[in-house]
Every structure is written in structure tokens, then in C-alpha cells.
């Protein structure tokens, strides 16, 4: 019988030589190795600040604060606050320095409650020690 056409294909061979067997094992191992690799750029990340945190902060800002506090700011911080307030007023949103300070304080409180060891405040305190 003459081998030609599809009969020459390794798929239609009934006998596999020892050399072909080694090659196919290597190819199968390589294919398996590529199948195991997980894509690193497509990992999903959970958001650090969930909608529940935003809702909690929004709720606490809506409450009227009655305690009086005074903070000292640098000129750079004060200028940044004025720019933020101006930016939001251009978008027809009223925002005050007091509300920004309360948002920041409530954010730090909620972040601390969520994870005391890995919160932003802990990271900043550790950086200040260095």
C-alpha cells in the first residue's frame, strides 16, 4: 500500500515510533505549560474604598456638626483647598472648607475601622517615623 496524502499524516499512523513518542511528550508538556500560565495583566482587583464607605461618609457629612475645632494649615494646603472649592463651584456644587475637612476626617475614620493595620493613617504614621 502506498502512503500518500492523508495517510502520511501522523494522525493516521497506527504505530508511533519511539522518536515520535518523545516529540509528542515534549509538545504535550509545552502545551500544558502554556495552558497553566495565568494572565497577569488581567487580574481583577477589588476596590479599596467600597460604596458602603462612601455612603457612610456622605451620611455623616449631612449631619450638622456641633463640636468646634481649629486646625492650622500651611499656605500650600489653604491654596489647594481654595482651588478645590472654586473647581466645585464652577460645576454648580456648593462645597466649603468645613465639609472638605469633615470628609477627610470621616474617610480616615472609616478606613481605620475597616483595617487598623493596613489603613492609610497607619501607612502615613510609619512613613513619618522613617
Query: Percentage of helical residues?
Result: 55-70%
Number of helices: 5
- Following the backbone from N to C, one meets helices and strands in this order, namely HHHHH
Number of strands: 0
- Major sheet attributes: none
How much beta, percentage-wise? under 5%
Low-pLDDT stretches are: none
Dominant shape: elongated
Q: Give the class from helix and strand content and strand pairing.
A: mainly alpha
Q: How far is the N terminus from the C terminus?
A: 83 Å
- Using the CA coordinates, give the radius of gyration: 32 Å
Average pLDDT for all residues: 78
Please, could you describe this protein's structure?
- This protein is mostly helical and 130 residues long.
- It has a domain at 51-129.
- It has helices at 18-36, 51-62, 75-90, 97-114, 120-129.
- The longest helix has 19 residues, at 18-36.
- The radius of gyration is 32 Å and the shape is elongated.
- The model has no long low-confidence stretch (mean pLDDT 78).
Defining key terms:
single chain; mainly alpha; 5 helices
SSE diagram, text form:
Layout (H helix, E strand, L loop, with lengths): L17 H19 L14 H12 L12 H16 L6 H18 L5 H10 L1
Helix pairs in contact: 2-4
Describe the structure in brief:
The protein has 130 residues and is an all-alpha fold.
Amino acid at each position: 500500500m502506498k502512503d500518500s496524502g492523508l495517510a502520511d499524516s501522523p494522525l493516521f499512523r497506527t504505530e508511533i515510533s519511539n522518536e515520535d513518542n518523545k516529540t509528542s511528550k515534549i509538545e504535550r508538556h509545552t502545551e500544558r505549560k502554556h495552558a497553566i500560565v495565568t494572565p497577569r495583566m488581567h487580574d481583577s482587583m477589588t476596590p479599596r474604598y467600597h460604596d458602603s464607605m462612601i455612603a457612610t461618609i456622605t451620611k455623616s457629612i449631612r449631619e450638622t456638626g456641633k463640636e468646634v475645632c481649629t486646625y492650622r494649615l500651611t499656605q500650600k494646603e489653604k491654596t489647594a483647598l481654595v482651588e478645590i472649592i472654586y473647581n466645585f463651584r464652577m460645576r454648580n456644587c456648593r462645597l466649603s472648607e468645613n465639609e472638605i475637612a469633615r470628609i477627610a476626617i470621616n474617610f480616615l475614620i472609616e478606613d481605620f475601622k475597616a483595617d487598623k493595620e493596613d489603613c492609610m493613617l497607619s501607612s502615613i504614621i510609619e512613613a513619618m517615623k522613617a
